[in-house]
Amino acid sequence: MAIVEVIDVLADGFAIATGDDPAGGAAADVDAGTAAGRDVAGQDATDPTPLSQAFVEHLARSMRGVPGPSGAASGTRHTVDWARLQAARQGAQTPEQAEGRVVLEAFRHISGSSPPPSIMAGPQPAATALLEPGPLPTQRPPIGPPPEPHTRLLPAPPPPVQNPPPPPPPDTTGPLPGAVHTVEDRRPRGWQRLHRREKLATAFGWMRNIGIVVILFAAWQVWGTSISQHQAQQSLRGQFQAQIHTPAGTGSEPRLIAADVAVPQPKEGSLVARLQIPAIGVDEYVVQGTAEGDLAMGPGHYVGTSMPGQAGNVAIAGHRTTYGAPFNDLDSLVSGDPIFLTSDSGVKLEYTVSQAPVAVSPSDVAVLNFFGDNRLTLTTCNPRFSSSQRLVVVALLRQAVETPPTAATGSARGRDLHVSGGGTVGWNLIYLLPVLALLGAMVLLGFANKGSAKYFGRRTRWLILAPIWVAATYVLFTLLTSLLPATL
Question: How many angstroms separate the CA atoms of 66 and 215, rounded?
Fold first, then answer.
């Protein structure tokens, strides 16, 4: 019997001894001869242990179909000689060795093979002795013929290659011998290409964002400032309608204040008049001053020139491209077009354009001087979207008015002109530092945009950062508008 079968029998016998018989049999399944042999050797000295008894009974059942030396089944011509099996225990030093000898003797007895004389003559070693270390053999046992290889289970070898491909050419794109190798050189080339693509994508993203900001700023200059100017005009309209009243006097002609009378100057940004130009559809409320903040609300009166309702030269400036562009079509006026100016006291004066619009230098303030007549001077930037020149429109008072005599005449009548924004061209550098600080904060916010996804998530971060971006962009556009040269 092969050693595998012996091991299987040992395992089954152990299962029987522990109460788990895989075959479902019991000790009563052993034939009558086996039971009789156990009864003959039923003394205390020769009684088998439960483990050895279960093993021998299972071995006897399993060996019935195994032919013995004479060709008959071993289980049918042998009975279990329990005395012989228990005699094999003699000389064992431990219970394990005794059980091993019983197992070995039972296998020889039931299978019908007799033990060699050398083993039967002396004490038999236990089965567990095979696991104990012993002296190494001085001579290797003869090795039999090698087993037949399982050629049918192995795949067929590939056919030999007749013409192997030539080896690839050496890489000449790597660093030269003796060059300093950085971490980038030791990384895979695919990673380096991916890293370069990420840098290009980042640079492209920043260029795209800058382009978007420039486009938004241009749109803000054209349409965004118009919204704020329209709201300011709505507020000024309410103020004008509340404070207007009928001037005192009995004559039918309006009475003007003398040009040499020092009229108290109102606060800059306050309402002073209403300007109407039907030819180009202008109906705006005029504020005092020509600073950037004043012109953001509407046309501004040059501080130092005659006030609306006063004799002399009344000068007014207005934007042409931004903040509602009230003077956008000022170049379309022709000689004879009417212009109406109503003061805050209710005096409505009609002027008529005396000549075609002319362009002068932004530093030429001579057009604001007193020329001894009653006129209205309108100025704006020229050409559109630029402040390199000033476009000037002059209109003379058309209706006859009652004007008291003046005590002094002259180019400026000794009055100081405060031309802010409308008469000078240049950058308002006072806003440079706030603009740079806000730009730096927005750049840092852009770098933190990607990292914020780890803390807030991809969608939640936009709910948090979007209001910050909108507020920062609005403040930046407002500061940039004040920083840039005034474009009237």
Answer: 99
